[in-house]
Amino acid sequence: MWDLIVALILGIVEGLTEFAPVSSTGHMIIVDDMLLKSAELLGSPEVANTFKVVIQLGSIMAVVIVFWSRLWSLVGINIGGSEKIVPVTKSKSRLKLTHVIIGLLPAVVFGFTFESFIDKYLFRVETVLIGLIAGALLMILADWKTKQAKKQNKHFEAASIDEVTYKQALLIGLFQCIALWPGFSRSGATISGGVLMGLKYRAAADFTFIMAVPIMFGASAVSLLKKMDMLTTDVIPFFAVGFISAFFFAWLSIRFFLALISRIKLLPFAIYRIVLAVVLGIVYINMM
Hints:
It is built from 12 helices and no strands. The chain has 288 residues and is mostly helical. Belongs to the UppP family. Its EC number is 3.6.1.27.
């Protein structure tokens, strides 16, 4: 029974933190690697890593559900959906699949080029601490630039996701490359980058979540295919509980975040990241 409770907790942590700009990696290090230790429950680190890939797929499925109609519209199919689509105000253009592809290209190139280096040298507590602090500083900068723009009566270039330009998509994609550093947070980097590039917070968040679907699904699918032999009948209940809880709590987290981001901005998340870095550092030092 305890193993299923662990799976439930880890699924909750994954779901709540994967798309919020707080770093799911940092939370997993504290909750799993330092406290619950799923690797010991499952018998090996390899099976535990496969579990984390599976629950990440649960989180991705939540994005697909929330942005169901928008994702179909990228390939020219218009169907009903639950997400709120902000009306276009500057043109009759719509977000296209090409915007998403352009946004993905930098991270795909950097990811394939430096995958071995990242896996070998950057997945350590020390580097995650750096990522947490650096990501927080970037988010504070984005909020500060927004306040300065308002003082100067400057308007956002993209009030809705449908006004994102190809140039903005590429630049946001470059910001996403920073998130290859563990602890930086993909959503934190891309939302901050989007705001710095002139997008409103909700538009930056929408583009971030939509762009996350193909890159995260692709990376998770490839990783899972390499580890299919780890999916034995003994671990299926553990994996199933984690997947379902990750899906449900990611869905809640995304809906909640999208409803709040335009009002609370990024500063509260930046402060939380700094506190998390301090906690992680203290726990790590005490365990040495």
